[in-house]
């Protein structure tokens, strides 16, 4: 198989466009003798005659024109590759794998992907739902490029592997049945609900968050029912089976359930984005981080 030297092919291509060795040398910032030498070498590599004398000038042979006709597609693809690399360097193209916990997917990740689709369609985001703590494991293993998680679930604030970018502080509101005595109260605190039957998961982050919030308010919550999904939790609240803490970011709304903002003892959770240390400088990752920050914005106030 012949040796294909792209640099020498470019010289041949330029000669076809400029017409003379001298003009080709000027266009490529070479000397005429260097142009002639490179084309002589190319002819030897390909095993065909590329130039023939025509008075004081040279002209391309049929073999040279055949070579250029067949390699135009190569030059086109190289131009496309150059353009794609330039777009990647500017953060206008590339793929970013995002791991995010369940409530963050509709509240943050989906709006961010929608924004990027409108402003930077060549940036592809691959989403993987994962528990808040598991998102860090995926990030450390290189299975995702960016994790949307909770600051409380980070391995350590001093962990040298990750860089954290705060996204929002997410308040926790309380879901009450419509006939609950506090559904229409002027203000509601966690301590007002100390004697209630609570609905939360048997284990995991949400169980920890609910227990910790209630214990900080001075009581240990009585777990009347156990559920992990918001659909099940809110259905039980609607049926009057208990009350539940609901993250405002989840935007969980259901007819027959009253969402109340808590008072001074209102618990919050801190939502962050995390990347492997040093990766925050990546252009495409930076685009996704900005889109997530734009999607975070100020949290909405729930309806009473």
Please characterize this protein's 3D structure.
The protein has 304 residues and is of the alpha/beta class. It contains nine helices and eleven strands. The protein has helices at 6-18, 21-28, 32-46, 62-89, 104-119, 132-140, 205-216, 230-238, 283-296, and strands at residues 51-54, 57-60, 93-100, 122-129, 146-150, 162-176, 197-199, 222-225, 244-247, 258-260, 268-276. Strands 3, 4, 5, 6, 9, 10 and 11 form a seven-stranded mixed beta sheet that branches. A two-stranded antiparallel sheet has the order 1-2. Helix 5 links the parallel strand 3 (93-100) and strand 4. The longest helix is centred in the first third of the chain and has 28 residues, at 62-89. Mean pLDDT is 85; it is low at 299-304.
* Gyration radius, rounded: 32 Å
Q: In total, how many beta strands?
A: 11
Beta percentage is 15-25%
Sum up the overall morphology in one term: rod-shaped
Throw out a few tags for this protein.
304 residues, alpha/beta, two-stranded antiparallel ribbon, 11 strands, 41% helix, rod-shaped, disordered C terminus
What's the structural blueprint in terms of helices and strands?
Blueprint: H1 6-18, H2 21-28, H3 32-46, E1 51-54, E2 57-60, H4 62-89, E3 93-100, H5 104-119, E4 122-129, H6 132-140, E5 146-150, E6 162-176, E7 197-199, H7 205-216, E8 222-225, H8 230-238, E9 244-247, E10 258-260, E11 268-276, H9 283-296
Parallel strand pairs: 3-4, 3-5, 7-8
Antiparallel strand pairs: 1-2, 5-11, 6-9, 6-10, 6-11
Helix pairs in contact: 1-2, 1-3, 2-3, 5-9
Give a short synopsis of this structure.
Helix 2 crosses helix 3.
């Amino acid at each position: 198989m012949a040796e294909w030297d792209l640099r020498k092919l470019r010289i041949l291509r330029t000669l076809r466009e400029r017409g003379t060795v001298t003009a080709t040398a000027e266009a490529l910032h070479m000397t005429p003798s260097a142009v002639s030498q490179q084309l002589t070498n190319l002819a030897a590599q390909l095993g065909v005659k590329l130039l023939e004398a025509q008075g004081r000038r040279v002209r391309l042979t049929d073999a040279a024109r055949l070579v250029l006709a067949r390699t135009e597609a190569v030059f086109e693809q190289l131009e496309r590759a150059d353009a794609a690399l330039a777009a990647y360097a500017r953060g206008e193209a590339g793929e970013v794998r995002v791991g995010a916990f369940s409530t963050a997917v509709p509240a943050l990740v989906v709006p961010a992907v929608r924004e990027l689709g409108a402003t930077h369609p060549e940036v592809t985001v691959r989403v993987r739902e994962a528990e808040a703590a598991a998102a860090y494991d995926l990030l450390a293993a290189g299975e995702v490029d960016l994790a949307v998680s909770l600051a409380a679930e980070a391995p350590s604030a001093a962990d040298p592997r990750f860089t954290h970018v705060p996204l929002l502080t997410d308040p926790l509101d309380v879901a009450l049945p419509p006939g609950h005595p506090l559904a229409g109260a002027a203000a509601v605190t966690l301590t007002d609900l100390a004697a209630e039957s609570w609905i939360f998961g048997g284990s995991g982050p949400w169980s920890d968050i609910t227990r910790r919030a209630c214990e900080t308010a001075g009581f240990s919550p009585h777990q009347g029912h156990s559920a992990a999904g918001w659909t099940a939790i809110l259905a039980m609240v609607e049926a009057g089976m208990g009350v539940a803490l609901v993250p405002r970011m989840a935007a969980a709304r259901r007819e027959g359930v009253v969402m109340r903002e808590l008072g001074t003892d209102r618990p919050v959770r801190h939502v962050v984005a995390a990347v492997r240390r040093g990766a925050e400088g990546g252009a495409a990752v930076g685009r996704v981080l900005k889109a997530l920050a734009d999607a975070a914005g100020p949290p909405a106030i729930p309806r009473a």
